[in-house]
Amino acid sequence: MAATKGIAARAKLQAKIMHLDSKVTSAKKDFGLAVFDLMRHKEAEAWMKDTAVSECFQQCVESVEAMEAQIAQSREAITMVDVAAGAVQEPPC
């Protein structure tokens, strides 16, 4: 029964990772769409200094980093589930 719970927990975490990976990709796409119009209507030098572009980029970075942190936590949790189920040997210290 413990093995079944471990398998279920692992599957749930893997689904969470897939969902977050999808959200990261979506956030990056949204950033590209938002910035494209800003860049299209400005000179190259101007858009690099543009506050709106910087703000859009910073929001995207913060969102992506938060999701990547959740992905890392979920991967660590999968490792712990695997170790508890005996599927993975802990590395020697």
How would the blueprint of this fold be written?
Elements: H1 2-40, H2 44-49, H3 51-85
Helix pairs in contact: 1-3
General description of the model:
This protein is mostly helical and 93 residues long. The chain has one domain (2-85). It is 86% helix and 0% strand. Helix 1 (2-40) runs antiparallel to helix 3. The radius of gyration is 20 Å and the shape is rod-shaped.
Quickly count the domains: 1
The structural class is mainly alpha
Overall geometry comes to: rod-shaped
Average residue-wise pLDDT: 82
Number of strands: 0
Determine the strand fraction and express it as a percent band: under 5%
The percent range for helix content is over 70%
Order of helices and strands: HHH
The count of helical stretches stands at 3
Radius of gyration: 20 Å
Terminal CA distance reads: 30 Å
Would you identify the regions where 5 or more consecutive residues have pLDDT less than 50? Answer: none
**Most strands sheet:** none
